[in-house]
Amino acid sequence: MKEKLEKIRQAALEKIAGSDALETLNEIRVAYLGKKGELTSVLKGMKDVSAEERPRVGQMVNETRAVIEAKLEETRAALAKKAREEKLRKEVIDVTLPAKKNNVGHKHPNMIALEEVERIFVGMGYEVVEGPEVEYDYYNFEALNIPKGHPARDEQDTFYINDKIVLRSQTSPVQVRTMEKGKLPIRVIAPGRVFRSDEVDATHSPSFHQIEGLVIDKGITFADLKGTLAEFARELFGEDTKVKFRPHHFPFTEPSAEVDVTCFKCHGEGCRFCKGSGWIEILGCGMVHPNVLRMSGIDPEEYSGFAFGVGLERIALLKYEIDDMRLLYENDIRFLKQF
User: Taking every annotated instance into account, which residue ranges of this chain make up the domain Aminoacyl-transfer RNA synthetases class-II family profile (predicted)?
Assistant: First the structure.
């Protein structure tokens, strides 16, 4: 038994001495000291040892275990120290080098303008809603009182996926979907990306953003629309801003109007920015057409409402005095960092 324990000790010490990795040491520990290790098998064989010899043999086993464990711990500490030194050598830091510049980004001017518009209307009790950019022809046209054959359906203006599906040309379909839910009264704005087959130039793009608003309730009049947009203009462009409504035509509103605001550069006196008129056009609006209400399941005899729509890029161009819409999309950091 003594010779067997001596062989186990010598074999274990030789393997430990030849180890060059912590993983190898763990394997040696399991092989000799684990539940199925060689020393454990010796202890299991104690039943075959006479009662007189058991204490001496047990002491020899414990001494062998202690020697192996001590050598394992010594080697583990040495290997860990070596690994740490190697890691420090590879990860050396030159504290004399200049620090890396931390470039912090910020919001796009479109997003800044959108958040300001949302803040204004949420403060007036409106809810922000969204809808799909790929839309059914019904929601994009028919439900907005634009029947088949109407010029707004011209393929030169709208991106058709097939005869029933289009890329939405305005966010008005979100208003229809909101009305169809039947939860009245309604006070919502619907911002989002829209698509039209326009040539790219300083004021046009095939993909841009709109913010449309809708109010449906009992007793809503054009006076409510005028007061809402006048307050919106004052919040956005300044307290002394005035609004002017010009008659217009939209298929989904009746009566309809385009809205101008006094130039916030010259305060209505006339300048280069407003081309000498003192006024700047910002949006279109009107009272929701009875046909639109009826197609959405709302009784036009009981309820009325108004709607309006403004281009987000137009607000950004005006507010930040940008003269070319393309600058918003070119991702030139020299331009964007100004905001």
Answer: 117-330
